[in-house]
Amino acid sequence: SYIGKGIYDIDAFELSLAGRVPENTLLSHDLFEGIHARAGLVTDIVLYEDYPPSYLTYTRRQHRWTRGDWQLLPWLLPVRRPTGLDAGRQQITAGFGVIDTWKLLDNLRRSLLPPALLLLIIAGWLTLPGAAWVWTAAALLALAIPALTGALTPLVTGPIGASWRHSARSLGEGGQRWVLAVVFLPFEAAQMLGAV
User: What is residue 19's DSSP assignment?
Assistant: First the structure.
């Protein structure tokens, strides 16, 4: 997957999209660029990218990326847009393939996860049938899966080349990430809804 770091001929890339992306209609977006630049896997280059220095910096970046993902939604269907090549309107498609469309839709799905989980918890307590704790547990379990999957894998398969202590520490760190995901869920839901 293209992450915005790559080597390609900028002039050729711009020529391939000439007239297809009207000015000021699309944020600079790695997914869109990667689909059209067809960046390939390079195994002999290692890239180190720093994590954002603070949680607020991370959420601002996530907000910007989510806005960019949602700006790509209209590009899934051919529509008539003004082009820079002529004064008229012509039908333009983004040229997304099946995998490209799946990547975009998966990004949109991920951006809707925090609001959906928060809505599930609230609806579970206010309107959904059955016990509220069941709905809350379902939402919290959904938050726990990504945080704990990596930590539980060594416990299930047995630590290969690692000690049980390392596996337990990994499980503890996954649990801490899950607690933070629960605590920040309302804020992240609001951030994602704002971006959408």
Answer: T
76: confidence class by pLDDT, cuts 50, 70, 90:
confident
Which tens digits make up the pLDDT trace of 60-71?
A: 989 988 998 898
Sort 75 into a burial class: Cβ within 10 Å, 0-12 / 13-18 / 19+.
buried
Give how far Cα 90 sits from Cα of 72, 85, 161, Å: 18, 10, 60
Amino acid in position 113: L
Cα 62–141–139 angle (5° rounding)?
Answer: 70
Q: Is the pTM of this model over 0.70?
A: yes
| CA atoms within a 13 Å half-sphere pointing along the CA-CB vector of 94 | 22
Q: How many CB atoms lie within 10 A of CB 83?
A: 17
